[in-house]
Amino acid sequence: TAAGGVGVLPGGRLPLEDAFAWSRFARSALHTNDIDFRMRHSSAEEASFLARRVAGAGLGVTYTDLEHAPHVLLVALEPEEECGTAFLRLRKGMLAGRVAVTTLAPMTTRGSTKLRATVVATIPGREAAALERVPTDHAELAEALAQPGAIILVGERAGAQPGTLSAAEALAERTGARLAWIPRRAGERAAVEAGLLPGLLPGARRVADAQSRADLAAQWAVDQFPSTEGRDLAGILTAVRDGELGGLLVGGVDPLDAPDPQLVRDALAAAGFVVQLEVRRSEITDHADIVLPVAPPVEKGGTFINWEGRHRPFGQVLASRALADRTVLDALAREMGTALGTATLDEVHEQLAELADWRPETEAPMAQAVAAEAPQPGAGQAVLATWKMMIDDGRCLDGEPHLAGTAHRPVVRMSPQSASAIGAADGSQVSVRGPRGAITLPLALTSMPDGVVWLPQHSPGSHVNDMLGAGAGALVDLEVAR
């Protein structure tokens, strides 16, 4: 900390108790709000949305609600690939004749077909505009969302497109539909509740609120409590790369998940000191000065919080000497002269109980985000659409070749007219080129808007963030591979 401070990247797969320990360690031991669990595309607008609409909200929209909703609107969410249980509940309700589904998406997917969903073809980056036009361009949808029990579901990809979350919230308020946020990773809801964000403290308290800071400082017996909002993922990595931050404390994250994997590598290489808490070796391990092994979920107890806000406690399954993140951080803090009180689950639960049922006196304003003008593709160009498949090239499938072998074949998807414009036919090898490089995959002609190309974000041969250096909504170049 003497060399400029430490950035904290815990990741989004932690149970609540570990997430709380990370949050308290950052504030009590490192005296910093430079902490962000989001190793993915995100924004200040999303952080504001999570603080206002998710943190401390308790049990909201439930699976049962999905099964019985008269209408569900999906925004930046492909449930079959990004939340399989929600997909199954929606399909169950649809087959029972109760649920109708509409999705804002760049194409009709397998999941949309199985849900018999109405697809509002939306070019990536134009989701906010599409939502704003619902009352005028899609009056029937607006009427459907005004029915009691109607739901708007936004996926985590909405946080990457400026204005989308604000527009979804405005549509929900206008129609009376309930609004719910569904992330992909199992620990993201717990991360929000534990305050693993630069402007959010545990228990839905805001860094900007002086009384919230004072309450936590008194509860934790901390004299030096950070009073300014910290840096987000990009800010932390940039500050480490440029020497403004001296070190990194990193959890179970993968650089390939980051919007800019090269920035992660540059930050790791430039960091004066890197401490990693991880279950098994990763790319980050090669840069770490200290690696502290931690237990996987089966070797510890804890509580996951699902997207509903429902607490799902679990017990330790396998006998193990491995320590949970909360125990490792508690011991590390003691060596630094700080008491966290997170060595046992009971200690953590006592602290969490003291933080429960608190709401701010005034609601924080939504961070303003203006949707950028959508780029217009020229000859040989297209707007990129992408998301992760449920079974892809992620590290959770390391050593599982049979399960990995059930994944859908990676393909590039374009409309027949877009393909014809570059001289490609179904099955042709098409190269999609971004600022950093190209991805070449076989073409699958798909019913979708012209001028849009889709790639799997993290499948074999298609690591979009790393290989292209571009995200959804960016312009990319197209050509038939020779």
Description:
There is one protein chain. With 482 residues, this protein is of the alpha/beta class. Helix content is 32%, strand content 19%. The chain has 19 helices and 21 strands. It has helices spanning 16-29, 44-54, 63-68, 79-82, 84-95, 110-114, 127-132, 134-137, 139-145, 164-175, 188-194, 210-220, 233-241, 261-270, 325-335, 345-355, 401-404, 416-421, 464-467; strands at residues 6-9, 71-75, 100-105, 118-121, 151-155, 178-182, 200-201, 205-206, 247-250, 273-278, 290-293, 302-305, 311-314, 381-387, 412-414, 429-433, 438-445, 452-456, 458-459, 462-463, 475-480. A six-stranded mixed beta sheet has the order 15-17-16-21-14-18. α1 (16-29) packs parallel to α11 and α13 (233-241) packs across α14. The longest helix is centred in the N-terminal third of the chain and has 14 residues, at 16-29. The termini are far apart. The model has no long low-confidence stretch (mean pLDDT 94).
Briefly summarize what is shown.
The protein contains 19 helices and 21 strands. By secondary structure, the chain is of the alpha/beta class.
Helices, by number, come to 19
Q: Strand content of the residues, in percent? A: 15-25%
Mean pLDDT: 94
Helix-strand makeup class: alpha/beta
Strand elements, count: 21
Report the helical percentage. 25-40%
N/C terminus separation: 53 Å
What integer value in Å does the Rg equal? 22 Å
What is the topology?
Layout: E1 6-9, H1 16-29, H2 44-54, H3 63-68, E2 71-75, H4 79-82, H5 84-95, E3 100-105, H6 110-114, E4 118-121, H7 127-132, H8 134-137, H9 139-145, E5 151-155, H10 164-175, E6 178-182, H11 188-194, E7 200-201, E8 205-206, H12 210-220, H13 233-241, E9 247-250, H14 261-270, E10 273-278, E11 290-293, E12 302-305, E13 311-314, H15 325-335, H16 345-355, E14 381-387, H17 401-404, E15 412-414, H18 416-421, E16 429-433, E17 438-445, E18 452-456, E19 458-459, E20 462-463, H19 464-467, E21 475-480
Parallel strand pairs: 1-9, 2-3, 2-5, 3-4, 5-6, 9-10, 10-11, 14-18, 15-17
Antiparallel strand pairs: 7-8, 12-13, 14-21, 16-17, 16-21, 19-20
Helix pairs in contact: 1-11, 1-15, 13-14
